[in-house]
Design brief:
globular; about 25% helix; 7 helices; three-stranded antiparallel sheet; Jelly Rolls; alpha+beta
Length: about 280
């Protein structure tokens, strides 16, 4: 489906109707759900993103995508408010529909588009898969912490590109800007072509948090088994840890026999080499 086949008047607009959002997602590859976050939650998330970004800059470890845009990685380690977002009911509603009920968190990051930023290259979130898939393997929820506009770098999208099996190289002129009010959620299929827009304003910063999910057999973008704070491994909710992959799924992720089930834990006494009598040996 090309832009020529789509009337801009028919493209998704922010909606509070869940069924309409599902329809938009199926047809266009994205939906904009208004009111996904309360004003209070938006303010708290935005303040935490800003504080963390400034703190990482102060430590000399801030990650800048070009000179203007900044990204903050591995947010599960950086506040309960981010971990709660992973378990938001909207994730179950939309990711469960796209990826099945046992989906995993692939990464949790923040994106700050500042004035002077250039457009990101167009890509799909499952671009590392070298063939088109009839169903998405990954999908994303971008939580808008400011009003998203074309001027301040609203995410560029190619509507309908998730249904194109030819993996077309699209141009920026094929895209539209995802626009919506603060508190809206942009939900998009991992096969859809998109990229961060260019912030052409003089002073306006645009903040968003991305909860990027995958099917349970897909390798995650962030390695939580190694990267999650060890204290959180002991204290976080079981449902949260399961969403990060601390669980055996359909025999995947096990540390012993195929019948292993349940939560993953470090192997403290691995079975090593032994002789025919069951005695440890050095080989």
């Amino acid at each position: 489906m090309s832009m020529a086949d789509l009337s801009r008047q028919a493209l998704p607009r922010p909606t509070r109707n869940l069924e309409r959002a599902f329809e938009d997602l199926d047809r266009f590859g994205y939906a904009i759900l208004e009111g996904a976050l309360s004003r209070e939650r938006v303010a708290a998330l935005r303040a935490r993103v800003v504080e963390q970004a400034r703190g990482e800059d102060a430590q000399g470890i801030g990650f800048h995508d070009g000179k203007a845009n900044q990204r903050v990685w591995m947010l599960p380690n950086k506040g309960r408010i981010f971990r709660d977002l992973v378990l938001d009911p909207l994730a179950d509603a939309f990711m469960g529909r796209l990826l099945g009920k046992d989906f995993l968190l692939s990464s949790l990051t923040a994106n700050i588009a500042r004035p002077g930023g250039v457009p990101m290259y167009l890509h799909t979130d499952q671009g590392y898969v070298d063939f088109w898939t009839p169903k998405p393997l990954v999908a994303n929820i971008l939580w808008m912490l400011d009003d998203f506009t074309e001027a301040n770098g609203g995410t560029r999208l190619v509507p309908g590109s998730h249904l194109n099996p030819d993996r077309t190289d699209y141009a920026l002129s094929d895209t539209i800007a995802a626009e919506g009010p603060a508190g809206a959620a942009l939900i998009f299929d991992g096969r859809m072509v998109h990229g961060t827009g260019s912030n052409t304003t003089e002073t306006e910063e645009r903040h968003g948090v991305l909860t990027y999910y995958c099917r349970p057999f897909v390798r995650q973008q962030e390695n939580y088994l190694l990267g999650l704070d060890s204290e959180l491994r002991q204290t976080e909710r079981g449902i949260f840890l399961r969403r990060l992959g601390f669980w055996i799924w359909s025999g995947l992720g096990r540390t012993h026999e195929p019948g292993d089930k349940g939560a993953l834990a470090p192997v403290t006494s691995p079975i090593g080499p032994m002789d025919a009598e069951g005695r440890p040996i050095d080989v």
